[in-house]
Amino acid sequence: MVRAMAHLVLATAFSGTAGLTFQLAVGGDSAKSQLSAQEPGKSWPDHVMEQMEAKWAAGFFAHGAPSGTAPVCGQSTFQELQTNIPKWKEDHPHVRDPFCHFQNHAFWFAGQGSVGEDYRSFGMYSGVRLEWTSTFCDSTAETSMAGPEMALHYDGGNITWTHARSFIDIVDDPYCYSLGWLKGQNLDGALMSNRTAWEEVARRECEMIQEEYRFDDEEVTVGRHIFTTPVYFKQTWNSLKGAGPPITKRLHKEHVYTKCQLGDGAPAEMAYCYYKGCVLPGNRIGHSTECGYDLSGMAYD
User: Fold this and answer.
1) Is Signal a UniProt keyword of this protein (predicted)?
2) What is each CA distance from 90 to 16, 72, 93, 298, in whole angstroms?
């Protein structure tokens, strides 16, 4: 998932979903005015998740890449969505950036294969710096610490928030937590400045995911990744409500393993998650200044 500071379209790393591309706007609305849009008696998570459900039910997450992307990108066919990724790579040795190639079917892929040397800046912009209020989903604003206290219990663990600000927090914080990639979990953020070292960590992380779950290649095609994205959103909501099939750590790791196969690791996703939030005492998820990085993404001295 990604955010923006102004009227902006940005393609970067979320869902995790990470890496979604949105038309975003930051306005002057306060947390109070945003929260007041709720129907009486409806919880904040239900309020924002119902807004997003209307989008995914209408096929929003099968949109292609935004306008203005490189013309060489977005050339994939529908048939390629079902092709096993190792087989697809064998058949397409000329495609240097698979994320670019498939972004006409998965718009959140845009930019994930062309981070360049600076994973820290990528993570900073996609995870912490780009505070946003979406044009189609309410938010208390990423700069605020407003929002209700919540708890999520699933097979990946028990986590709490003192402020769930938006749809992105609700679906991507558990996703990144399952992967172990939030700040304060398994990653050494200092390695992010060394591209070679960070990419090697990403390869090892992906290898451990496959050792844990032994995914068949048919489970991690690009098509399955696209069509199960709303499933992991919906099941996260189910877990919050305590009704319906719950979210699982396996589904989170299946989701990222597609990116592992496409990119020989998922270094951009790791950078996104590291800056998305942090794990504080009591398994509480923190954000922004709570995590020891300011809004420019640089750590406090």
Assistant:
1) yes
2) 26, 19, 6, 40
Q: Which two tokens stand for residue 234?
A: 């919906």
Backbone phi, psi, residue 70, to 5°:
-60, 135
Long-range contacts of 40-43 (CB under 8 A, 24+ apart): 43/148
Q: Is 116 left (phi over 0), alpha (psi -120 to 50) or beta?
A: left
Measure the CA–CA gap between 283 and 260, rounded to whole angstroms: 27
Q: In this predicted model, what pLDDT tens digit does every residue of 150-199 receive, in sequence order?
A: 899 999 999 999 887 788 889 999 999 999 999 999 999 999 989 999 99
Rounded CA gap, 16 and 175, in Å?
7
300: exposed, middle or buried (Cβ count in 10 Å: 0-12, 13-18, 19+)? exposed
Which H or E run contains 185?
Answer: none
- List the structure tokens of 67: 């306008």
Name the packing angle between helices 44-57 and 222-241 (round to 10°).
Answer: 150
- 153 forms beta bridges with 158
Sheet holding 150-154, edge to edge: 150-154, 157-161, 284-286, 278-280
Kindly report the length of the chain. 301
**Tens-digit pLDDT profile for residues 265-298:** 899 999 999 999 999 999 999 988 889 875 554 5
Structure tokens at 181: 């990639």
Domain edges within the chain: 44-67+116-291
Residue 150 near residue 45 (C-beta atoms within 8 A): yes
Q: Distance between CA 5 and CA 284 in Å, rounded?
A: 26
The number of CA neighbours under 13 Å toward the Cβ of 26 is 14
Query: What is the average per-residue pLDDT within 95-105?
Result: 93
Q: What is the pLDDT of residue 93?
A: 95
